[in-house]
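A quick aside before the break. I want you to see a complete sequence-to-structure record at least once, exactly as it would be stored in a machine-readable document. Don't worry about memorizing anything.
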Amino acid sequence: MQLLLLALVVVFFVALPYLGVSRFQVGETTTILIAAMTAASVNFLVGQAGLASLGHAAIAGAAGYAVAWSFKQGWDPALSVLLAIVLTLVVSFVYGILTMRTSGIYFLMVTLAIGMLIYGLAFRWSSVTGGDNGILLQRPEWISARENWWVFYYFVLAVLVVATLVLWVVSRSPFGASLRGIRDNESRMRSLGYSVAAYKVAAVMISGFIAGVSGILGAWNTQSVSPDSVNVSGSILLIVMVILGGVGTLLGPLVGAAIVIIVQFTVSSYIDRWQTLLGLVFIIVILLARAGLVGSIAKLVNRILRRRRPPGHSGDGVPEADAPASVGNHPA
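That is the input. The structure line, written in tokens, reads:
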């Protein structure tokens, strides 16, 4: 069902440029897709490992700075991407090493501190980062042609689909099952012989890699990077996106990113205090749909299907022999 919904969503986004939308609206949709990819990296870490990060905007921003700096030096785009990926993995490894012994609020605070440190470097190391002015850059030629402006949109869409499928496969692999075991009962997993710290580092690096890819696309999209790209407020908005869409869901990051980006860039043209509106939306979702929009809809559909399902051969209320006994315990 999730893959079918993903396929329908992809078909919609593929057809979007042909539905009479403006070039500006396609550009805003591109921003939503990039934000959804970053939110998906956070969603993987929260949903599978139970680790909420307030530093993923800094990881994505570090990749963006690497691409911008290498462009300023006249590097080839392929080498720029390679440098960005290497820097992303290094930063993610540092995140993992410094947080592998923590969980819960302590993990949150450590990632917040690292994110603030990266923001300070971006703001003060002006000889490399350009300081408050940031760095301007251009997209590679094959996705920057004015007459083929839709190429970059489809490229971002393809990367988002691949990243989503990669995270989906990893979450349903034995590695993902181990992460959920650590999330639910860390001490028991440690007693069973699992290296909890190593699993956490690996999860942070996988999540950080996806965030780094989105950071590269984000730098190409805006064609600039600045300290705002690594600000802690960006990481907070990523958490908001994940909660609005639904933690652990496949399409939740996309739905949450769409709500936040539309309020931030479209509604803000008519309402000065768009943060207040976003806060009200967040409160309403928390009160009425505690599992997020996608998660709550999935629960409602499962409840309806369960009521319409014919009783098992053994009688009402008794599961069939071939049916799994804990379907409801699997993440959405």
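Two observations worth writing down. The longest strand covers residues 135-136. The mean pLDDT is 88. We'll return to this after the break.
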